[in-house]
Amino acid sequence: MGKKTDQAYLTRGETQARIAELKYALHLMRQNRLVLSGSILVIFFIILSATATTIVSPDQAFDLNFSQSYCWPSSIISWTALAATCPQGSNFLLGTDGFGRDLLKMIILAIPLDISIALTVVTVATAFGVTVGSVAGWVGGKFDEIILRITDIFFAFPSLVLALVFAALFGRTIQNLTIAVLLVWWPIYVRLMRGQVLVEREKTYVEALKSLGVKPARLVLLHIMPNAIYPILVQMTLDIGGVILTFSALMFLGFSPDPALPELGNLAADGIGHVFTAPWLIVFPGVTILVIALAFNLVGDGLRDVLDPRLRR
Amino acid sequence: MILVLFGVSVIVFYLARGFPSAFSPWAQYITVKTKPAQIEAIIKTHGFDQPLYIQYWYWLWDVFHGDWGYSNWANGLPTYVVFSSRFPFTVELTITATILTLAIGIPLGIVSALRNNTAADHAARIVALTGYSVPSYWFAYVLQLVFAYYFYTWGLPSLPSGGIISQGLQGTVPTVTGLPILDGLFAGNLGYTADAVAHVILPAFNLSFISLGYLARIVRASMLEVLRQDYITMARAKGLPERIVIYRHALRNALIPAMTLTGLFVAGLLGGAIITETVFSWPGVGYVSLIAVFQGDSNFLLLYSLITALIIVVANLTVDVLYVFLDPRIKY
Amino acid sequence: MCILDVRDLTVNFRTYRGEVKALDRVELRLYPHEVLALVGESGCGKSVTALTILGLLPQNAYVLSGQIIFKDVSLLTISSDQMRRIRADDIAAVFQDPVTFLNPVLTVGVQLEEALSLVQDWVPYVRVRDESSSEASSYNIKDYLLRRNPPRTEGSEIKAPKKMSEKVTREFSKNILKLVQLPDPERILTQYPHQLSGGMRQRCMIAMALARRPSIIIADEITTALDVTVQAQILRLLRELRDTIDASTLLITHDLSIAAEAADRIAVMYAGNVVEIATTTELFRNPLHPYTQLLMKCIPDVRRPVIRLESIAGSVPDLIDPPSGCRFHPRCPFATDACRSTKPIIKDVGSDHLVHCHLF
């Protein structure tokens, strides 16, 4: 019976317990109808993102036809007195935008872009933030102090302002804007993870593992991380919605690299000057963002309820 | 705290002046008529031709002498005047939004907690989550469309779509506090006040819709936790009516985290809600900060970001102190 | 004759992992002026019994069958409002570990006055007292607790203030705190729970219970969270109050020695059943149920040197899937086939000694 077997035994026991917990968590989530519908929506959107290019060909984005811009297909529902009606025979379901493109198709093309950016930002921010945060929490001392101050400075700015500033500086490409949003988002994970590590560090199982001679890196990765991961998971899910909101807000405010880019905020921006002549341009992209964010938030909220040990049962 | 402010100023300074942009830093001090010699002089006095860290020192020196610079795009007024003339409007918006948030968010959270897992809870949850899933600019436009335009066309009493006060009433009341609602009350001019209220409702609601979602969730979570506590069982065992158990025993404990969140929310709002102010043409500090960004006005941006950062830092401290008052268990 | 009659009480809890059969046909009787101790290991259902009597079971619990009769009122069938009235007037509870049982953001005074404010026949006493405050000295707190009418003087009018005035409440609060032997009641009323020591908090809780002049006081592990010296003080306090107050006490504890010291009768519980009830002397002299006998053996005797500490083999059963028949049979040295298959019924073996076992 060597040290390795002890460690392996510990990990095995832990994983079994965690699997049982996860099963219970899933059961709870399935019971809540709202969370269930949120999850279904999320899955729907992810599938949509993956298959969007097969439904609508990306060339459609370049299919500009100014003669039919800002028009609404049916004369039955007239949005406003000033809205134009599309020429007969056109089958636009949600009207057209300033470039004469079918809004519905543009929205379908825009969804994968927004979702993938959100997933990228959240994943990278989490990976980076969790690493820095766990080191700061574990090591403590000067390093911890410095990291704290840095996050404080980031928190002193409202997130939109910070993203705006970065966006204004970096230039208007999608990559740069993604980086801008990323820079706004990573501090929260640092703080979260650091807080969790600080709490877990004092617990007796950590002492036990340390006395077994487990190296710190392994300890943090294999043992502390799974216990600390729950609030981070919740934050990630909730943040996906937040990133989409911020990113599209940036586009909306005018940082888009290309006015014709099919992106939800950008499509909505097209409608600013036409609030009363083509209100559908603002309404529908916004509704899409709302539904996507709501779906992720439902899941995240349900996760939070379920994974919070104090609120169980 | 000073360190944070210092850090903020350095970062903003670097961002504003260090990056090549279309606007030169001295653009704020000159008009079309300024002669080249004068431009040279301005450059010399403010050190715009020096390396960045020396520029920073010049700026610091100016600031200590009360010179925060001028904003050309705002009729060449000193930046602090630009800020202070707009700040009361942001304050009015902030106060109204906070009242709305508390008035809607807290009951929403309580209902969710008391009727956990019932239809009421689900409905409350959807409202709360929609709150922070909604893009604020979109919601602003939708509010405008519905309440300003559609109500008007359908013949219903409609709300104005922007501005702080109707055109005809501007300047009819002496400025005491700078907040239209309060000024109207001080002057006893109820018509003015009513008009001001009508103007502030939509933007305030837009702002509060997002935060009341957060607030409701937090109130719900802390209420649920409090309701499981032993002292609630004790209170019930004393035979107290359920109403008193909830309002006196449970809420007092549950609202503590909610209060701290509200403090931070107010601080964030005082920095100016850029999007809301833009959509509703609300002349607050957020609105002008956006213009400043697009004009490359580093002086205003420095002033603005420092004040905002200061407000947030002060708010954090206040919230910490508030915590001590609210929870008698915490001692320093 | 008895003031509280628990018959055939069965309570289950609905949980994710199954139904917990917490109480299984519990039978108890509480007589006036007595102290009945409910003794058992952790998890045997003592607190659940108390909560059921009080009507404070959590949402996932439900009463499967049984009756609780209190002064001719069936507690399980009345409305929650009536139950609340009973909690305010007649049945008071004192719990363990007042750190969590007192609201940390309210002062002790506020919480005590809350308890006072609910007492219903408060007004007749107040009326007289308000008008003739010189009568304060001749009307003492013990009379109040024993529901004896205060003396009336000539010509004192009876005007009825709807609610007690603040001053009167404060006076009564102070008097009650003095009764539970708390020094400086004036100051204690203004303090928060965390500023008091464990013993003082427990006395405050007892004061809150006494203030309602209950017929029954349920004391759920009130000394468990205190250290031994304070424990002794509290027990002594209870003993002294016994003569003053007119209530019966249901003393719940896991410590047999506390039961021995403070109780008139003892009921032993195991895994949701009451297995034996007898007077204290009778129980210690003649324990009948195997579980009781084993418990007695576990108590080390200070007079004799002990070579090793005794314990009962096995562990407490899982109440989701309890043993069939008599729940104690897996650990019982005398188990028979009957014990494994059928549940024993209560038998009276004379001199008020009841046992729940097939062997008798």
Q: What's the short story on this structure?
A:
Chain A is mainly alpha-helical and 313 residues long.
- Structural class of chain B, by secondary structure, is mainly alpha
**How would a crystallographer describe the biggest sheet of chain B?**
2 strands, antiparallel
Helix content of chain A: over 70%
Main sheet makeup of chain A: 2 strands, parallel
What's the β-strand tally of chain B? Answer: 2
Anisotropy-based shape of chain B: globular
**Oligomeric state of the chains?**
heterotrimer
In terms of DSSP E residues, the strand content of chain A is under 5%
The fraction of residues in strands of chain B falls at under 5%
Q: Note the run of SSEs of chain A as H and E.
A: HHEEHHHHHHHH
Mean pLDDT over all positions of chain B: 77
User: What structural category do the secondary elements of chain A indicate?
Assistant: mainly alpha
**Number of H/I helices of chain B:** 13
> Which residues of chain A sit in consecutive blocks of at least 5 with pLDDT less than 50?
none
What share of residues of chain B is helical?
over 70%
Strand order of the largest sheet of chain B: 1-2
The most extensive contact between chains is: A-B, 48 and 45 residues
